[in-house]
Amino acid sequence: MSPSDAQAAEYQGAPASRPLEIAFGVVALAFTSGYLFLATQVPLRREAVAGQIDARFWPTLIGVTGVVVALVVLAVAITRPAPSREDLERIQPGGVTRVVFTIVITGIFIALWSLGSVIVFGYRVEMFPIAAAVLMAALMLLYGHRRWLSLVIYSASITAFVYVVFGMLLRIPL
To answer: Nearest-5° angle of CA 25, CA 30, CA 105?
Structure first.
C-alpha cells in the first residue's frame, strides 16, 4: 500500500448532516426575509409612475429571489436525505477560532468605517481607507499570510482600488 493510498484510506470527509442543512435553510430564509423587509423600506424621493421602476425595484427583486431560493433550499433539506459531504474536510483545529476572529475583525472594521472621518491635529482624516487596509492586513495575517512586503502591497492596492472606483469615480460615500 503506497503512502497516498494510506492517506486516502485515512481521510474521512465531513459527515452528512440533515440538521445542518435545515439550519442553513432557516438562516438563509431569515436573512433574506430581513433583506426583503429592508428593501421595502428604502426611502423614495418621488414615487415612480406606472411602467417605471424606482429605487426599491432592484433591492426588492433581489430580496424576493433570495426568499424563493431559501424556501427551495429549506424544502429540499426537509424532504430529501442529507447530501454526502465526503468532499468537504472536517472542521480543522483552530477553524472555529478563525471564524470568530474574522467576525470580530469585521465588526471592528464596520465600527471604524461608521465614524466616517475624524479630526486629527486639525486635519480631517477619512476612516475608510485606513480601516479597509487594516481589515485586509488583519484577515491576511489571521489566515496565514506572513510575507510583509506582499501584505502591505496587497492591502494598500486593494484599498486604493476600492476607494478610487467607489469613492472617487462613482461618488459613493464611503
So the answer is: 95
